[in-house]
Amino acid sequence: MAKISKKRKAALEKADLTKEYSLGDAASVVKEITFTKFDASVDIDVRLGVDPRKADQMVRGIVTLPHGTGKDVKVLALVTPDKEQEARDAGADFVGLDDFIQKIEKGWTDVDVIITMPAVMAKVGRLGRILGPRNLMPNPKSGTVTQDVAKAVKEVKAGKIDFKVDKFGIIHTSVGKSSFSAEQLAANAHEVLQTLNRLKPASAKGTYIRSITLSSTMSPAVTVDKNSAI
Fold first, then answer.
1. pLDDT digit string, tens, across residues 55-113
2. Confidence band for 34, pLDDT divided at 50, 70 and 90
3. How far, in Å, CA of 168 to CA of 200, rounded?
4. Which of 24, 25, 73, 197 holds its CA 20 to 30 A away from the CA of 137?
5. Which residues pair with 93 in a beta bridge?
6. Do the beta carbons of residue 57 and residue 201 sit within 8 Å?
7. Can you give the three-state secondary structure of the chain, one letter per residue?
8. Alpha-carbon span 137 to 125, nearest angstrom
9. How far, in Å, CA of 118 to CA of 81, rounded?
10. What is d(CA 166, CA 51) in angstroms, rounded to the nearest whole number?
11. What is the pLDDT of residue 1?
12. Rounded distance, CA 28 to CA 221, Å?
């Protein structure tokens, strides 16, 4: 087991991990108990009262974080030649079509988001077995299959994220970096929670938002008082 530094031990002792915190206080605690040499990702986990096996209870959505993700998102635009310059001007890191489809078929997936257009989905669809498991498959619901390629690229670069409930009924997504202020992290997390509330399936029974935790890459989870957060 890795040895815990004195600083980290002191911080962990200060944080009462059995307590429920307000969103702002939880963000402060996570920052306090995160000791990494890198700028750790801060994540929110929300357990929902849904059954993801039922199609009408699948919760999926998009949210634009007011303070961005803190991450330099690598975007691939799979587009026809007439859209290439538009995608480049909007900030796409990689632009092309057949050449990148061939690269992906050989195993290349060094991107965070792939944006494409309806006209080429027949070609892109063949990549489903590679892109699907990596959550990279473009989807009209998440705004990554669109005619307005420039707008989609700009939104992703500005902090738009796509999330969906996993098979255990949990939404897990990043709300920033440990270098963010507690206020920025709380504002981003609040935006995610507000979006989740709007996406509540009509068929979901009982308590919808069951629990909320915040944590960083290297910190324990801090429980958020859900009544104060939503």
1. 999 998 889 999 999 988 999 999 999 999 999 999 999 999 999 999 999 999 999 99
2. confident
3. 16
4. 197
5. none
6. yes
7. CCCCCHHHHHHHHHCCCCCEECHHHHHHHHHHCCCCCCCCEEEEEEEECCCCCCHHHCCEEEEECCCCCCCCCCEEEECCHHHHHHHHHHCCCEEECHHHHHHHHCCCCCCCEEEECHHHHHHHHHHHHHHHHHCCCCCHHHCCECCCHHHHHHHHHHCEEEEECCCCCEEEEEEEECCCCHHHHHHHHHHHHHHHHHCCCCCCCCCCEEEEEEEECCCCCEEECHHHHC
8. 8
9. 14
10. 10
11. 44
12. 13
CA distance 66 to 207: 27
CA 97 to chain centre: 26
Structure tokens belonging to residue 1: 């087991």
Tokens standing for residue 88: 């480049």
Instruction: Name the token pair of 143.
Output: 């705004």
Q: Which of 80, 120, 127 is nearest to 105 (CA)?
A: 127
* Amino acid letter, 228: S
Q: Which residue has the tokens 């199609």?
A: 55
Sheet with 209-216, strands from edge to edge, namely: 20-21, 222-224, 209-216, 41-48, 170-177
Alpha carbons 159 and 152: distance in angstroms, whole number: 11
Q: Do the beta carbons of residue 22 and residue 189 sit within 8 Å?
A: no
